[in-house]
Amino acid sequence: MIRINLFPFRAARIKENIRRQITYYFGSVIIILLAITYFYMNFSKQINSLRHKIDEQQKELDTYKDTNAKIRDLKKTIADIEMKLKTITELEKIKTGPVKLLDDIAMSVPKDKLWLASLRENKGTLMLEGTAMDNETVADFMDRLQSTQSIQSVELVRTRQKKIAGLDLSLKDFALKCKTYAFKQKQAPAAKGKKK
Predict the structure, then answer these.
(1) What is the DSSP string of 98-112?
(2) Which runs of consecutive H residues, i.e. helices, occur in the chain?
(3) Residue 192 predicted with pLDDT over 70
(4) What is the pTM (predicted TM-score) of this model?
């Protein structure tokens, strides 16, 4: 019987397998290192590009700071001018308001049918007293007052008949309460919370 010694063949095969595994291991490590280097370089390039863009945008924002400061100053100036115009308008209204009010009252009086005896104004509330030929004339006078721009509302306080002796005339004394352009509604105080 012939015997063949296979031990040297197996040993060579084992050595070849070990060599192949070491080659695969180092090849894998080199490939992984190359991949990591590639991704690192790529990410580094992207980061540098983004930093460059951020720097450019920051420079652009810095150029807008002056413009924003000028816009803020202009808005402040516009607000000041609007406040001054509003004050001027209110002063003109206060200046011409009483004259316009008296003109509106004078134009509302029915000619030769109604005579005003007194006129008092306080904080936008106007009290008118006078004499009229009849109740219809008083109602007409109230309607005319209500239609003016100077008077917001008209309220009849009282009317009473007045006889003039010797002439056999029956006239009507009246009193009116009006709210004028200068009337301002009082602000109701804020309700306080109940204490426990």
Answers:
(1) HHHHHHHHHHHSPTT
(2) 7-108, 135-146
(3) no
(4) 0.48
Residue 3: C-alpha distances to residues 6, 7, 27, 98 (Å): 9, 12, 40, 140
Q: pLDDT tens for residues 53-64?
A: 999 988 888 888
Q: Provide the token pair at 29.
A: 């490590």
Tens digits of residue pLDDT in 26-52: 999 999 999 999 999 999 999 999 999
Structure tokens at 41: 């370089």
Spell out the residues 6+ positions from residue 124 whose beta carbon is closer than 8 angstroms to its own: 179, 180, 181, 182, 183, 184
Yes or no: say if 139 and 184 are a contact pair by the CB < 8 Å rule. Answer: no
* Residue 176 phi, psi dihedral angles, 5° rounding: -120, 145
The packing angle between helices 135-146 and 7-108, to 10°, is 140
